[in-house]
Records
---
Amino acid sequence: MNKIFKLLTLCSFAILIASCNSNGQTGKQQRPDNSVKLVAPKGKAIAAFAEGCFWCSEHIFESVAGVDSAVSGYAGGTVPNPTYELVNTETTGHAESVLVYYDPKVVSYQDLVNVFFASHDPTTLNRQGPDVGSSYRSILFYQTPAEKEIAMDTIKDLTKANRFEKPIVTELKHLDAFYRAEEYHQNYISDGKGRGNPYVTSVSIPRYEKFKRTYKGKLKPGA
């Protein structure tokens, strides 16, 4: 989220005060290990995506049939164990991301890639809506050569079909590491933590509703 907007929101609403006092530490001080093992439970699979605010992304992916859960976090950078505050400095290389746990018998990686492109604007460089900075850039992560090929082919197909008015600027990156975000970010919308937050009501929810109108795949009942 745009840093100035976030500061106003975080400091104006009590529900977000905790984020203004994050436990994250910078500099040479040691930070807790928040890395997530990139191993899926038996019979399941994982995939990661960066498409702007992870509050929105988590809510969207968890509405898709076959998705067990989505974890908000940070990926794509070089700094180990990043914190929310540190990522917001735009110096870590990380982007707000979601790690999706899913059942490949119900939903495929291709399906999730389709969700990715249906739920954000992949043509805006280092920006998603009001959120500006490299930590909000569009990244399509892959773990295998097959997933990379699916990602590349999808971008080619969307470009050929003129799906977007401007060129797609989504990065393709191998998923080397994923770091879990602070607990107050997890299930921020679905658990009601963001109730009353103007960012959620004016940005997150409209983006979610737009996704539901345009996505052609199967959603969970009641989504």
---
Amino acid sequence: MYSASPPLRSPLGSRLLIIFLITLCMFTLSACRKDKDDIDDGRPAAQMYEQAKNYLNGQNWSRAIHAYQQLSTRYPFGRYTEQAQLELAYAYHKGGRAEAALSTADRFIRTYPSHPNVDYAFYLRGLTNYEQRIGFMERMMPSRVRDRDQTAARESFRDFDELIRRFPDSRYAPDARQRMVFLRNNLSFYELDVARYYMRRKAYVAAANRARFTLETYPGTPETANALEILHVSYTEMGLPELAEDTMKVLVLNYPDHPYVTGVSNKGGFFGRLWPFGKD
């Protein structure tokens, strides 16, 4: 009786089959290891927290994040979990995961508003916006910090401001105040940069609004005198001599040596031609 011989397998097909089987085994072993890592081994919260803290102190941010997450999952309540949430936010921050750090800090503030370390959550929010977004630009391109989008700077400024208002005696308040000075100066510069753009476009209403906003929101910055200058020029071009005169009086009183004041008083140059009032 005739019997058909089995079909011959091509060498390529055999190799592909072997590769597939090896890959499947590796995937299965990896999954088993992951399951073993994630299985509840019965460790107490204190021990899990200590391990996560060691990872954090060793600056192993990814392992610290994983360990804190495990602790929070297995023990959703308790003093170790409370502190773990705060340190998890810090680990996210140092690990370059800004959005996760902000959301974790927010969750901590909402969940534990009376926690003795809640002031650090506010500080960490401001620090994350400052360092992860602004600090990087300051280090890499110092001359371009003021030119970029200032959304993160405003958020950081608000976070630090809320920290100081709520916890004026916090250990983090002095550093927050120093950072706010830097942010305030850069934000005021940015607003006036936009105002100058409007001036070049002869959009004097918009320029005046920007200058006025700068004076009201960021008083006392090095740009205050320049904001008054822009406001005076805008009022003059808009045909509002009384407002222009009042603005000039404030500028002369507080910044008598400002180049714009000198130019107007001498009736010279471009600024002098914009001054519509006679000398007293």
---
Amino acid sequence: MTVPARLILASTSRYRRMLLERLSVEFSVEDPGLEETHAARESPSERAVRLAMAKAQAVAEHHPRAVVIGSDQVAAAGRSILEKPGDAARARAQLAELSGTTALFHTACAVVRPTPPFSASHLDTTRVVFRRLTSEEIERYVDRERPFDCAGSFKVEALGIGLTERIESEDPTGLIGLPLIWLAATLRGLGYEVP
């Protein structure tokens, strides 16, 4: 039996690391060292796909025989891009803006192997309908959850689920940051035992 190539997750996200661990494949983690910038006239979904591929390619340049996974998530509500808030004040402001609205979370995943050449990407879009939130609920959520490293200040895998009316998704892991249904199928195609 052929042993599959070394697998690397091109990410600094603890959430993506925890998600990939669910597939029970051996992997290492490497920081892609990229600035996550927005290009002119680029849609949120295009940005997510571009950055996922760029992260995978940046790490693959240093590991030509490895299989590298890159992922990126861009959240948007209307014309607003929902970045990671970084602090409590911005988190409260984002959630006040999201109250009673719908946001789209575009999560892209790319898998790259330089030698022999392989490249594939996928986009998962999840629609999150937020219920009307009071300022007290927002304050309580931000104090308890501290979602400062999450797009839109929204952490569905924890208390954030209580902020929603409904979530429409083909892959619930995509909303957390790494669409495992597509990724598992792609890794199986490359010879990894999943499950």
